[in-house]
Specification:
This protein has 9 helices and no strands. By secondary structure, it is mainly α. The chain has one domain.
Length: 204
Amino acid sequence: METGFLLKGLFIGFLIAAPVGPIGVLCIQRTLARGRLSGLISGLGAASADAVYGSVAGFGLTLIAEFLIDQHVWFSTLGGLFLCYLGFRIFRGKPAEKAVAPGSFGLFTDYASTFLLTLTNPMTILSFAAVFAGLGLVGTGGDYLAAGLLILGVFTGSALWWTILAGGVGMLKDQLSPERFQWLNRVSGVLITGFGVFTLLHAL
C-alpha cells in the first residue's frame, strides 16, 4: 500500500535525525537560550535538509548524488568552519537577564543555519541509500507518488524528533540560573567547535 511508504519514511527520518550531533547540541542550546520555538525551527531546518537528501536517494538522482559526494571535501570544509564560528560565538555568549523571544528574522536565521549545516554533509545521502536498501526501498519503479510519500515521511519523522527534543529540553529552561546557563554556553560552544574541528580534519 502507498501508505506503507509514508510510514517507512517516517521511521527513516526519525532514525537518522535521532543521534545527537552538532545540530542536536545547537538545537538544545537555542531552546534553552531563546525558547522551544527557536529550537523547533532550528530542527525543522535540519529536517528540510534531510528531506532534500532523502529525495536525491529516493528518486534515484544519481548524477546529483555523485556530484555532491565528489565535492564533499569542499562542503565539509565550509560546514566545519561554520561550526567553529558558531561554537566560538556560543562560548563567548552571555546569558540575557531576561529571555527575549526571537523575531521573524531570528527564526529565519535559526532555520537557515541548520538547513545549510545539514546540507554541508553530502555523505548523508549514503546513509539514506543504506537505510533505503535495508528496508527494500531502493527504486520505486517510477512511482513518483510512492517516492513523494516516502520523502514526506522522512521530513515528518525528522520533524517529530526535533519537536520531542525541543519540547523536552524546553521543560528545563526555567530551572537554569544565569550561572548554569553560562556554564551550558561554554560546554555547548566547546562541543560544537569540537565537531567543527573534527569535520575539518576529516575533510582534509
